[in-house]
Amino acid sequence: MKVAILGAGCYRTHAASGITNFSRACEVAESVGKPEIAMTHSTITMGAELMELCGIKDIVIADPIFDHGITVIDDFAYEDVIEAHKEDPEKVMPDIRAKVNEVAKDLPKPPKGAIHFTDPEDLGFEVTSNDVEAVADADWIMTWLPKGDMQMGIIEKFADSIKEGAILTHACTVPTTMFQKIFDDLSSPEMNVAPKVNVSSYHPGAVPEMKGQVYIAEGFANNDSINKLMELGATARGNAYTLPAELLGPVCDMCSALTAITYAGILGYRDSVMNVLGAPAGFAQMMAKESLEQVTALMNKVGIDKMEESLEPGALLGTADSMNFGATGEILPTILESLEKRTK
Questions:
Q1: Closest residue by Cα to residue 40 from 58, 61, 56
Q2: 216, CA 20 to 30 Å: which among 5, 107, 123, 228?
Q3: Which tens digit of pLDDT belongs to each residue from 307-329?
Q4: What phi and psi, each to the nearest 5 degrees, are found at residue 211?
Q5: Crossing angle for the helix pair 23-32 and 78-87, nearest 10 degrees?
Q6: What is the DSSP string of 233-248?
Q7: How far apart are CA 318 and CA 20, in angstroms?
Q8: Measured between alpha carbons, how far is 166 from 1 in angstroms, rounded to an integer?
């Protein structure tokens, strides 16, 4: 099997955020006896998992950065980083982030400059700046491309080199539905530059070097492709989950915190009104739908940054508290406390 990974990444954005570590990368590094995996970045971590845990040796990393060369920071011993992560990653991460931010001051941003701690070639990967060369004969093309509105322009340059029936996955920055539409458009009679492919996702749901998990979108790829991704994902990442393509963003991207709150609220509300009050499912659903639709409509109408001007948070304090029982009572007090803090 040949895997083409499009995008090598750069650690500077992770360093700037100050919330990342190398927990999963260290775990893999120690399990396969290759310390240099311990400080790999995102796509390189996922490639190393496929190579070392799944036995896939034909893996190529493509990125324009390889025309300019990556900057490898070698100030930190891999073994020391692994040991620190067994107790508390923050014993080493502040120094690592500080070093990256220092180097980044004098280094161009991608695609002219990128910061890593391990050279991908030292892990056995083939590297290239040529996407056409990378995707040729690839069974699986794992993309880590820039923001969504740029992806069509990038993909159409190599689309006609993709093998018929290949698996195409995205990992971030674009919804699966949008990713599928790109290939629908490229394979349309008007353009006719892309073969039929199996579109899904291989989304880590977090920084890949932090957590061993992957989310695979259903709805577009055939069953064999989904099963193959699940098999490889479970072995390589440790945990693999399928979910409807439309839910990938709400579950995996930054809005997952909002999704978790909303979903917990729906389930708690459902159990309280149905199991305690005895309301029928249809009535409970009608009321839930009105709540979700009208709050969304308010956000769309006034803007997320001006919602309090139209709906005072305190207005809910005297109404929602009446639902403080059953499953809702497990989460509502915290919500009410938060709303009270925002009340004028």
A1: 61
A2: 123
A3: 999 999 999 999 999 999 999 99
A4: -130, 140
A5: 120
A6: HHHHHS-EEEEEGGGH
A7: 40
A8: 11
